[in-house]
Design a protein that fits this description.
Largest sheet: 4 strands, antiparallel
Strand content: 15-25%
Helix content: 25-40%
Number of strands: 7
Radius of gyration: 21 Å
Number of domains: 2
Structural class: alpha+beta
Distance between the termini: 42 Å
Length: 156
């Protein structure tokens, strides 16, 4: 990407950015999926051409779903959510019928590791907390509760 004038982001190594005059083009790559976006239609066309000479590619059109995040467009803007991700997560752990709570964790919860008590399935716990960490990208209201849960990753 650097040979085409793109700069790799310092905060996300999978993001490449190119600025030309007042316009910007962004490319983000995850394994074998990529998103190309920006306001420079000419640069986007050129980039697709360059990439097509080196890789077998398929254009899936406007972005609708990527890595568990649904993308919705309207006259008011672009909105993202993880509704399907949450429903799949709740189904996986057998809690599809659970009721929502205003506060996802009780204040002064007092959670702690108690010696001599059998721990839960560590791999399952870590997988679940990892998924909740990813969910907190679009649900900052659960970030504190997920942070508390992640403190017990070594001994759930």
């Amino acid at each position: 990407m650097k040979q085409y004038g793109y700069r790799q982001s310092n905060s996300d190594h999978t993001l490449f950015i190119k600025r030309r005059e007042e316009k910007i083009t962004c490319l983000i790559i995850y394994v074998d999926d990529m998103i190309i976006t920006g306001d420079d239609a000419e640069e986007i066309k050129d980039l697709k051409g360059h990439l097509a000479t080196e890789f077998e590619m398929k254009n899936l059109g406007d972005l609708k779903y990527f890595l568990g995040i649904e993308v919705l467009r309207s006259g008011k803007g672009i909105f993202i959510n993880q509704r399907k991700y949450v429903l799949d997560l709740l189904t996986e752990i057998g809690m599809l019928e659970c009721k929502p709570a205003d506060t996802p964790i009780v204040q002064n919860h007092g959670l702690q590791i108690i010696k001599g008590v059998a721990s839960t399935d560590r791999a399952r716990y870590q997988r679940l907390v990892g998924k909740l960490i990813y969910l907190s990208h679009t649900r900052p209201d659960i970030a504190y509760a997920v942070g508390v849960l992640s403190q017990f990753m070594h001994n759930p």
